[in-house]
Amino acid sequence: MQLRERLRAFQLWFNPKRRRWAGVTLIALGVVGMFLNPQSRWTLVLGTGIYWFFTALPPTLGGKR
Predict the structure, then answer these.
(1) Which of 11, 45, 56, 61 is a plausible cystine mate for 30, CB 3.0–4.6 Å?
(2) How far apart are CA 7 and CA 24, in angstroms?
């Protein structure tokens, strides 16, 4: 299996629903990590989770255009 095929399979698997849940998981992990070890770089995990969560949202919320 070539790299291009594996990338396409991953893109199909990592759909917006899974991206939202992965974002929520990273946000929760980042918040817990900040409380347990505030001197570490948990903001990077939190930022990635926020990015994944908001990029997985539909472009029109509430059915309005």
Answers:
(1) 45
(2) 23
Q: Classify residue 12 as exposed, middle or buried by CB count within 10 Å of its CB (0-12, 13-18, 19+).
A: exposed
How far is it, in rounded angstroms, from Cα 33 to Cα 43? 9
11-53 pLDDT per residue, tens: 999 998 999 999 999 999 999 999 999 888 999 999 999 999 9
The CA-atom distances, in angstroms, between 2 and each of 5, 8, 9, 20, 27 are: 5, 10, 11, 28, 33
Structure tokens at 27: 């946000």
